[in-house]
Every structure is written in C-alpha cells, then in structure tokens.
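worker-3 :: picked Cell division protein FtsH
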Amino acid sequence: MKKIGFDSQKYIEEQSKYILERVNDYDKLYLEFGGKLIGDKHAKRVLPGFDEDSKIKILQKLKDKAEVIICAFAGDIERNKIRGDYGITYDMDILKSIDEFTEYGLKVNSVLITRYSGQPATKVFINKLEKRNIKVYTHEAIEGYPYNIDQIVSDEGFGKNPYIPTTKPIVVVTAPGAGSGKLATSLSQIYHESKLGRIAGYSKFETFPVWNIPLKHPVNIAYEAATVDLKDVNMIDSYHYEAYGEVAVNYNRDIETFPVIKRIIERITNQESVFQSPTDMGVNRVGFGIIDDEAVKEASKEEIIRRCFDTECFYKRGMADDDAVNRIQMIMEEMELKKEDRRPVIPAREYASLVKKKETTDELTIAPVSVVAFELPDGKIITGRSTDLMDSTAAAILNSIKYLANISDEILLLSPVILETIRKMKDVDLHSKITSLNANEVLIALSISAVTNPTAQIAYEKLSSLEGTQAHSTVMLNKDDEQILKRLGMDITSDPIFSSENLFYI
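worker-3 :: tokens ->
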C-alpha cells in the first residue's frame, strides 16, 4: 500500500476559509480556476491522499456564494482538441462539466466562447448549447492583447465584449484547458463591473506549481513534466521576493505577464493594485495539506516517468513536437530517473520478448507483441498478452481479478462458447476487422456471467480492488482499452510502439 502524503480534509477547510477571506475585500470576486475542477488525476497522483474532486467540494461548500462561467477558445472547438485524461473533445468536456456542476448544486451562469470569429464548428456547438437553454456569450479577439493597454482598457477593447450578468459574490471562471481565455474573461468582467460602479477583484486558483515548497521539489518538477507541451518553466517569483523578502515559486507565464496584468487592473479600477506579485494573486493553499514529504516526493517521481512515456507516445502519434520530447528527457536526467524505474515496465517487456522468441526466429516477420503488466496495490505483478481470443488489456484484467479472488488459473471465468459467440458476431454480423475481444467486451461478458456463475461473481467483485494499480503496455493501446483502465482507477503507460502496421484498424 502506498503511503498517504496529503490531508484532503485539512486542505478543503483551509482553502475554503482563505477564499472567503479574499471575497470580503470586494463586492464581487472573479476567481480563475486553473487545472481540473473535477477529477484532478495529476494532483491525486503526485499528492497521495489528495481527493481528485477537492476543488469542486471546496466550491460546493461555497455554493450559496458562487456561480460558474465556462470559457472555451473557439479554435479548440474548431479543431476538436481532446482532453487527454478523458479522451473526449473540449466541447464534450464542457457538456460533461455542466452536468457535474449541476449535480454538485453549483449554478452554471453561461458558456463563453473566446476569440470567436464565426468558426463553423463553433457555430454548431453554440446552437447545441442554446437549444438546451444554456446561455452562450462570445468575445472577439482584442488586437494587441495583453500588451496594448490603451486599446484593451477602452470601449474598443473590453468595452466591445458583452457583459455577462452575474448574481453571486464569487464568479468562478474555468475552462477545459489552458489558453481558453479565463484571464481575459475575468478582466473584461471587472472592466464592466467598474463601469457599473461595483468593486470587483481578481484572484487565481492554480494548484501547481506549489508556491511554498522548494523550486526543485519533485512535485513542482512533475508540474513541468505535465506541461512540456506548454513550455511552462517554474521560477522564483522575483516580484514576491522583492516585496516581502520571501521565496515563492511560480511559473514563467505568470511572472512574465504580471506587470501587464497589474497595470490593466490599475487602469480599470483607477487605483493602485493590492497585488505586489503574481503569487499574491493566487489563493492556493495546497502546500499546507502535505503531511508526508517523502511520500509526496516518491509519488511525484513516478509521475515524471509516466509523463515521459506519455510525451513519447504523443510524439509517435504526431501530437507532440521535438521540443516537448527533449524537455521531458532533460527533466528525467535532472531527476536521475529511468523509464525502467517504473516497476511494471521490465516484466511487460521481458514477457513480450519471451513470446516473440517462441513464435519466430525472424523478428522482422511479425508485429510487435502486445503485453500488459499490472503492478497491483499489494506489489504483485500480473501480466496478460494479446491472443486471437482477447487483447492484452482484457487478459491482464481477468488474470488480476482471479489472483485477487484466489481463483486458480485453470478455472475459466468465462465460457469459451460465450466468447466465441461474441467473436463470431463481431466477425460475421458486424463485419469487424478485429475480432479479438477488448477489455470493455470482456467486462460486459463477465458481468453477465456473474449472474449465474458464483466464481465469476467473486472475480467480478474484485474489480474495484484494481484501483491504484500501475500498468504498462509494450505497445500503444487503443483509446477504448486505455479509458477502461483509467475508469478502473489505474495509471497506464505504454512504450511508443504501434500495435500493428494498420493505420486505422488497430
């Protein structure tokens, strides 16, 4: 079992209190939320014990005082940008977020499309939202933003943006990902509030980097590893040190733009800003929730290795550039880490090598062998390989739950007749090019078998015990299998190798 390194309850209480203290200074506070509001898997991985839904639970405590504006950059909608942790496009993530906010009792004020210029796919998305009675606003790009302050703070800048009426003292501004226009939205709203004679303020709730732990702490380095595509670099906040003589960590983009943001706020409010540094703008108290620094350091190093695998796979698929790969490899060197330090990696590769040697002496004549290795929460390594009957992910899941349920390898959980019937349906009736069963199909078969087969029922009940499992594949998994593992609470990495020569049927 992994050590707990973070106290979520303490964090939620401390964070809620601190946000309320900041609200007291204004008629209305625009609170920019960075990172994931719901399902913050990165924070959960690097801070063992962190509740991945902590942020939304903090807001739930403040729900009588808060409402939400969701921002989306029109360009991201137009090119179907995908949120990696869920494997869904940004427009779908917005719909998902609205449903989740509603379940938590939070009011969603509206969706704001930023830098909108009539993009066709974005028009369709706007229409879809409006048909469901969701308010939608659009902002055009402001020429010279963020540096031409005279243009920005004028009727031709923020003044051209429609004002979004809000009724609560806290307005949470969130988005599916970075670059969605959260800051510009907050400043635009503050501009209009000022015109209406209200005192409105801005703060930023960004979990990482953690400002009050060392610059080179593995938690902060893991943040850099997670944002190699954005080229984020952690830095000492020089403004904070100059103002208070206190070392604080922030990242390059916030530090670089701080003077401009400060001047924009001062121009809007016609008074000197209360912020002396970008760290001042933040309300993040996550550092105070760390209760075991060594456990957090170890978890963060594991996350860096996972990010290395992810970046190399993104590169192989054409979704990352050379700079991202070079940066993650530099981080690995800096932290003196190797990919083989991840425990499931070597067992998966060794089993694949063994299978390959048995199948042929000419390695060039066959496709890569697909093997998935699980490191279960108790440290046990379980493997599964692809066969004509089922893929490696499905095999590894079945082998693992049999181990957890103390079921002998010789005992079949699923009737071969049932499996062959499903394969035949895929081949003959559905004309599928791939007839082996994937993880989703095997789990459905298992759940049905559990109704009449007591042994299958015992194994089925062990699925929840797979949460926290570390998994590695010798080939890049298809999205369906990858998402199944993530939904089961596993952390999966893959070697950057395509599973076959096929371009579509993989």
